[in-house]
């Protein structure tokens, strides 16, 4: 798994990158938790997500946001980190011009950044939002959410209470033309302590079903002229 350094908006960014053998393979970008609370690209869940996509033939990248590890710059409360993520996707796409589609998977703070990136990049066709925090971060920009995806949270999450995540899911589920899949991991906290295996099996099941052409949203009703 090659270590890579590429240019970001605030200096160099450090990542781990695994290209697919297929030139036109989709890209997966994995985004880590909050930089000021110990989040790095080596977080166990980020690491497992990286390998989940890699094993399924994706060209895969995880990286450290600005100010973490060997990535230059300073924490920027989300705005700069979104620019970092966009630069990371640009970098992979420059190496894989035949890749037409992309997935983004983010955990905690990373899920908030990932959902913002989703709004800006039409080539992102699927997302995984793990333990999002709609009680802390504003998700109102998802109007409308452009792609189908998975939202998964822990039943006993005190950082992002279940009722807040449920509110976000219900809002997104009213949108036509996309399919939001929601899973809750029983008894799991925000860090999925002792439950990472369960979390990953849910993510794998979702990704496999999407890749098999399942979980297709109902077509929007045609207007009668």
Notes on the structure:
This is AB hydrolase-1 domain-containing protein. Helix 1 packs parallel to helix 5 (196-211) and helix 2 (79-95) crosses helix 3. By secondary structure, this protein is an alpha/beta fold. Helix content is 31%, strand content 22%. The chain is globular and about 45 Å long. The chain has one domain (1-210): Alpha/Beta hydrolase fold, catalytic domain (Rossmann fold). The chain has helices at 44-55, 79-95, 109-120, 162-173, 196-211; strands spanning 3-8, 11-18, 27-31, 59-63, 102-107, 124-130, 148-154, 180-185.
Rounded radius of gyration (Å): 17 Å
Major pleated sheet: 8 strands, mixed
Architecture per CATH nomenclature, i.e. the level-2 architecture: 3-Layer(aba) Sandwich
In the sheet with the most strands, the strands line up as 1-2-4-3-5-6-7-8
Shape descriptor reads globular
CATH class identity: Alpha Beta
- CATH homolog superfamily: Alpha/Beta hydrolase fold, catalytic domain
Class by helix and strand content?
Answer: alpha/beta
Distance between the termini: 55 Å
Low-confidence stretches: none
Please count the helical segments. Answer: 5
Helix content: 25-40%
């Amino acid at each position: 798994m090659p270590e890579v350094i590429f240019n970001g908006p605030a200096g160099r960014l450090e990542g781990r990158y695994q290209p697919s053998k297929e030139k036109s393979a989709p890209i997966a970008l994995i985004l880590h938790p909050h930089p000021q609370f110990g989040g790095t690209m080596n977080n166990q869940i980020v690491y497992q997500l990286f390998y989940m996509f890699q094993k399924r033939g994706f060209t895969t990248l995880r990286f450290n946001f600005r100010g973490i590890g060997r990535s230059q710059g300073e924490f920027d409360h989300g705005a700069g980190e979104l620019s970092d993520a966009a630069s990371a996707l640009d970098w992979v796409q420059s190496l894989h011009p035949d890749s037409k589609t992309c997935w983004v998977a983010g955990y905690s703070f990373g899920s908030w950044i990932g959902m913002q990136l989703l709004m800006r990049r039409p080539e992102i066709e699927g997302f995984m939002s793990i333990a999002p925090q709609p009680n802390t971060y504003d998700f109102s920009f998802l109007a409308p959410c452009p792609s189908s995806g998975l939202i998964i949270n822990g039943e006993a999450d005190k950082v992002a209470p279940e009722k807040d995540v449920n509110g976000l899911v219900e809002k997104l589920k009213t949108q036509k033309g996309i399919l939001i899949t929601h899973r809750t991991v029983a008894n799991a906290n925000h860090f999925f302590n002792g439950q990472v295996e369960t979390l990953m099996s849910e993510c794998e099941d979702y990704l496999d079903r999407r890749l098999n052409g399942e979980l297709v949203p109902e077509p929007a009703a045609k207007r009668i002229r």
